[in-house]
Amino acid sequence: MRILIVEDDRQTARFIAKGLRQEGFAVDQASNGEDGLHLALTESYDAAVIDIMLPRRDGLSLIDEMRRNGRDIPVIVLSAKSSVDDRIKGLQAGGDDYLVKPFAFSELVARINALIRRATRASEPTSLSVGNLKMDLVRHKVFRQGIEIELQQKEFSLLEYLMRNDGRVVSKTMIMEHVWDYNFDPQTNVVEARICRLREKVDRPFGLNLIHTIRGVGYVLEERG
Hints:
Blueprint: E1 2-6, H1 10-22, E2 26-30, H2 33-42, E3 47-51, H3 59-68, E4 75-79, H4 84-92, E5 97-100, H5 105-120, E6 127-130, E7 133-136, E8 141-144, E9 147-149, H6 153-164, H7 172-179, H8 190-203, E10 211-214, E11 218-221
Parallel strand pairs: 1-2, 1-3, 3-4, 4-5
Antiparallel strand pairs: 6-7, 7-8, 8-9, 10-11
Helix pairs in contact: 2-3, 6-8
């Protein structure tokens, strides 16, 4: 999942970005409204966290312009203002939720997940499965043939993305955009390296490959007869 943060306070932005990355999200950041609007209109995001008081363009006009351009990214409005009128303005501008500073990071994550579920019109899954490969999203564990597989955070996020796209070919660019938090660099081999490590853990010990390379296109995770 890829999140946009538009926040001019460096300490707050670092706090949010670091926490979301630790939760497995890919994160893009902007420190002013104009840069935030550019990212919102040109990139693909699963949700956005936008402060109201921003230089160059305030958060409410940013959100309004997003909506005018047909961008329906779920948005959490951040603000130090807690009055009912301020909340109403944030929601009327096109925000989907409103969070008052200071806030608990766990609440922010819960609200982001709730907005993403609502946007996709799906209940929160507790597990994913492809063949005999099982992922427990609650306990953050992966099993194949009942045997637990130890994965690093980024490996878990990559496998989750592949499993959520079961049977669908995903390109290197798509993986970079949704699993890593920087723009696609055609020269980097980070995706290939992580796919290789996943295969060593998820496929090789079990004698049947689930992760397949589609040469010149990307990767697909599926059970093949």
